[in-house]
Sequence to fold (385 residues):
Amino acid sequence: MQLLEEYFEKLLDIKDSLLSWRKQAWDRFQKIGLPSNFKDLCIPQIAECPKTTEDASAELHFVDGYFQKTSLSHPIICLSLHDAMRNYGIFLQNRWVRTLKEETDPLAALNGAFQGKGAFLYIPPHCHVKNPIEILHHLNSSHAASPRLHIYMNKNSSLTLLQHTVGASNSFCNAFIDITLDEGSELHFQETQNLESSSRYFQNFRATLKKDSKLNALFFSQGAQFVYNSTKVQLLETNSETELRGLANLTHSFQHHTHVVVDHVAPGCRSHQHFKNVLKDKSQSNFEGKILVRSAAQKTDSYQLNNNLLLSDEAWAHSKPNLKIFADDVKASHGSTTAPLNAEEIFYLRSRGLTQMEAEKWLIHGFVHELMDKAHPSVQKRLEV
Fold:
C-alpha cells in the first residue's frame, strides 16, 4: 500500500478536470482494500504518457493505457475524457459518482485513481453503425497501464465493438470499461488478447441496461501469467437482456480468473451466461458467477453455465456458480461441469480411422465451437484452439 500511495501522490501534480475523480477513486480504493488473494500482487510503477503515437489501423487506439487517437467521424463522437468533460460533464460526473459508490472491486477503483488518458465514446439516437469499431490496446512497457473507456449509446442505436490487447513482456494492465445502454439500444462487444507469458491483465467491465436494450459480450483469452476479468451487468428497466460468454484456452502455468455478476433489478428481463475453459499442462482457471434477482424483478428468465475441459492431470479448474433470488415468479438455473476428454468418444473416433491426436483435436473442437462460431470473422482469425 505504501508504494501505491507514493504513485498516487505523483498524480496529484496533474491539474486537469479529472483530478477530483482520481481523488474520489483513491478514497474508494482505500475503503475497499485489497482482498487476501491480492495481497501479494506487485503493481509496478504507473506508465507515463508515451511521447509518440504509433500507427494503428484501429478506430480507437490506446498505448500503455493512454488514449492516442481516433479515426471516427460524425455522427459518432469520440473524445478524451478531459475534452468530454466540457460538453458531457454532467452525465460523466453523475455516472462516475454512481458507479464508484457501488464499486466493490479494488482494482476497478484503482483504475479510477491511476487512469491515464481515457476516452468517451458516444453513439447518438437512432444511429446504427454498420461496420464494427475496433479498439486496440498496445502495452509496450513493464509499467502499469490503466486504460479507461466510457461508452454511452443513446436511444435505439446499435454498434459492434471489437477490442484487441497486445501485451509486451512483463506488461501489466488494469483496464476499465463502463457502458450505458439507453432505451432500445444494442451493443455487441467481443474481446481478444495476445499477451506474453509474463503479462498480467486485469479488466473490469461494467454495464447498465435500460428498457428494451441488449448487451451481447464475448470474451476470448489465450491466457498469460495472470488474467482476471470482472464483469457486472445491471438490468435496470423492463425487457432488457444480456448474453455473456467467454472462452479461455490455457497452457503452461497460465491462470485465468472470471468473476461475473448479473443484477436483475427490473421485471421481465433475461440473462444468459456461458463460460468455458480448456486447460492444458499446469494451467488454472477460476469461475465465480452470480445471478442476483431482486424482489421487484418478477418474470426474470436467467441461467448460467460453466464448462471446463481438463487435458492434463496437473491442470486445475475451480467453479462457483450461484443464485441469489428474492422474487417468487422466476426462471433461474445454473450448472457447472469439469471433466477430461471422454475415453469412449475417443475410442469411437479411432475406430473410424482417426489417430489419437486427430480424435482429441475433433473433441476439443466440438467443445469450443459453439462459442467460436459466435465470433466475428476478424476475431476468429486471431483465435487458436
